[in-house]
């Protein structure tokens, strides 16, 4: 199945049925939501605004939002939230952001309610057809040329509302049913974007502005879907293609770049997606380097427009972090968190980054301040935050800990598993990993080897070590000191501990540009595969590291063999999905590179 792009009409497009204009492919059990929304929406005001005025007002609200003038933005949007689809979408964005940032049940309910109203407003403006026309679409294509600009924009706004509704479905009810319902909403949203990509070149637009704003929305939708799906492991992609999804990274990046170059309403969303990909996705989920020069160019432009914008100040900090400029990164992260107080949850994102900056510099006391703040104030994952604080405390030399701190390590290790969450009946992989580590702490007589350094490796922070030799050397010396024979207690998990030490040493040496020494440590991990009792994840992770070293050395066939070995011959280990992302992207790059050479 080919990836969606902005070209000729797509096969299999379809037109909505008139049930308060129900969205395409909306699951039957969701139709009640739309009917309830139609019944509960307040009466439409007698004075309405035309499409162009609506776009201008929402564009102003968007500028206020990205300059931290949140209340002014919210007031503009609320004024017409029950009559203008763009104002309604904007109001819903506020509600969804608050729900995602706080995870408070009341905020989640408010977001769901706001989205019901939003979908109803969108459906009021969508194209309405008769039952006979609905049946007729099976035999001929819809007449897209007859759509008005307002009807086309209504399709786009409905797609955006559906996507947000899917997000809320995932977090409001942690059951398999909700997971399926959320997936169906995303499928309906994908269908709407396909429809919009056809409408872009068929509608007779009354002005350049109405077309430009519509096009920017199509570009972010099509580009975002293609990029997101292309990042997923092959086995997931095969399943998604079976139910109608497809993704192509090149198409995704091309569409996002096109949206970034437009001055449309959603240009800033294309910017945010591109920055998120290059500065976060590339460094957390893959071996790739993001395009830092391009991000620098974007941020220079955006900070001129939004000099106090919390988002772009954060991304500037992330850019400097990925460059290895830790002092500069600290400056921008602090500037981001101090730039606004309306949503303190934004601060937590900066605290997370500042925690790891201090860990990389072995400044454990400073890192502990941020770990404690996250544990006390953030609701995202109490299990991870609790373990994280304990792991950092354990990196502080024993003689420097207070009696209360020593006692708190044991308390935190007992407390962390009690807050484990389940989504659709399954544990979150990293929380499951953390719970095992807490159990190990007690099984080894209240000892755990290099817990904070292991977390740094899992979050792919070791890539930053390669920017500065002294950072990697500091971590390597710490590992050597902690794993010296007279420091390591004898337990039944000796092989697990030695394998972890070898993996971490190899990772440091790789960043210190010593690939042959790194290979010896990774191979030592693999050689211990029969003796490792619990930390079986270390073996496939080491094999992937070996494959990536081969790739850097130009040994393409050896690299592919190692990556395929880790992919096919190991299963059921901790953090398996995380590793499969890295394997998928590494194999994709290797095969694409070979295809380019062959052509």
Mean pLDDT: 86
By oligomeric state, this entry counts as single chain
Major sheet summary line: 2 strands, antiparallel
Sheet/helix structural class? mainly alpha
Structure summary:
With 599 residues, this protein is mainly alpha-helical.
Describe the overall structure.
With 599 residues, this protein is mainly alpha-helical. Helices cover 69% and strands 1% of the residues. It has 28 helices and 2 strands. Strands 1-2 form a two-stranded antiparallel ribbon.
Which keywords apply here?
599 residues; mainly alpha; 28 helices
Topology of this structure?
Elements: H1 31-40, H2 51-66, H3 70-79, H4 85-102, H5 105-125, H6 131-136, H7 149-172, H8 176-199, H9 208-231, H10 234-242, H11 249-261, H12 267-284, H13 292-305, H14 310-323, H15 326-338, H16 345-360, H17 364-377, H18 382-395, H19 403-415, E1 422-423, E2 426-427, H20 429-443, H21 451-458, H22 462-465, H23 469-482, H24 494-511, H25 515-527, H26 538-552, H27 556-568, H28 576-598
Antiparallel strand pairs: 1-2
């Amino acid at each position: 199945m080919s990836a969606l792009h902005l070209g000729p009409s797509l096969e299999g497009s379809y037109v909505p049925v008139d049930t308060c204009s129900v969205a395409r492919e909306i699951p039957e059990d969701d139709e009640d939501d739309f009917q309830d929304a139609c019944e509960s929406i307040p009466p439409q005001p007698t004075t309405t605004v035309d499409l162009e005025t609506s776009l201008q007002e929402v564009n102003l609200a968007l500028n206020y939002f990205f300059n931290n003038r949140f209340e002014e933005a919210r007031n503009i949007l609320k004024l017409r939230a029950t009559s203008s689809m763009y104002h309604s979408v904007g109001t819903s964005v506020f509600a969804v952001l608050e729900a995602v940032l706080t995870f408070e049940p009341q905020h989640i309910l408010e977001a769901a309610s706001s989205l019901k109203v939003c979908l109803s407003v969108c459906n009021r403006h969508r194209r309405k057809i008769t039952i006979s026309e609905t049946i007729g679409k099976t035999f001929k294509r819809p007449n897209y040329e007859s759509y008005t600009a307002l009807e086309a924009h209504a399709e786009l706004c409905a797609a955006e509302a559906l996507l947000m509704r899917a997000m809320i479905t995932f977090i409001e009810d942690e059951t398999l049913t909700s997971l399926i319902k959320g997936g169906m909403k995303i499928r309906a949203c994908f269908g709407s974007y396909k429809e919009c990509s056809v409408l872009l070149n068929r509608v007779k637009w009354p002005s350049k502005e109405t077309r430009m704003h519509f096009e920017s929305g199509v570009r972010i939708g099509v580009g975002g879907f293609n990029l997101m799906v292309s990042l997923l492991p092959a086995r997931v992609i095969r399943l998604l293609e079976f139910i109608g999804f497809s993704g192509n990274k090149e198409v995704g990046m091309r569409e996002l770049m096109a949206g970034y170059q437009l001055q449309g309403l959603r240009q800033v969303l294309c910017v945010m997606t591109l920055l998120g990909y290059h500065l976060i996705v590339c460094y957390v989920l893959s071996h790739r380097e993001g395009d830092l020069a391009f991000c620098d160019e974007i941020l220079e432009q955006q900070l001129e427009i939004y000099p106090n914008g919390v988002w772009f100040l954060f991304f500037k900090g992330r850019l400097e972090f990925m460059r290895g400029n830790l002092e500069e990164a600290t400056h921008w992260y602090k500037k981001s968190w101090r730039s606004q107080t309306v949503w303190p949850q934004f601060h937590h994102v900066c605290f997370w980054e500042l925690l790891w900056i201090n860990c990389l510099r072995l400044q454990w006391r400073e890192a502990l301040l941020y770990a404690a703040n996250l544990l006390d104030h953030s609701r995202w994952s109490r299990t991870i935050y609790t373990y994280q604080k304990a792991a950092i405390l354990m990196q502080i030399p024993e003689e420097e800990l207070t009696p209360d701190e020593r006692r708190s390590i044991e308390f935190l290790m007992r407390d962390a598993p009690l807050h484990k969450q389940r989504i659709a009946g399954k544990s979150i992989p990293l929380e499951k990993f953390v719970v095992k580590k807490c159990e190990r702490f007690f099984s080894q007589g209240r000892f755990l080897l290099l817990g904070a350094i292991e977390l740094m490796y899992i979050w792919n922070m070791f890539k930053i070590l390669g920017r500065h030799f002294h950072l990697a050397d500091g971590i390597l010396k710490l590992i050597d000191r902690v794993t010296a024979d007279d420091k390591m207690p004898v337990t039944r998990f000796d092989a697990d501990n030695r394998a972890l030490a070898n993996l971490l040493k190899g990772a440091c040496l790789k960043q210190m540009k010593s690939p042959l020494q790194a290979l010896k440590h990774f191979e030592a991990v693999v050689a211990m595969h029969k003796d490792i009792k619990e930390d079986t994840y270390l073996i496939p992770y080491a094999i992937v590291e070996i494959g990536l070293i081969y790739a850097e050395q130009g040994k393409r066939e050896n690299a592919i063999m190692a990556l395929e070995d880790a992919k096919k011959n190991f299963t059921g280990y901790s953090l398996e999905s995380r590793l499969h992302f890295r394997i998928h992207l590494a194999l994709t790059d290797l095969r694409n590179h070979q295809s380019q050479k062959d052509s």
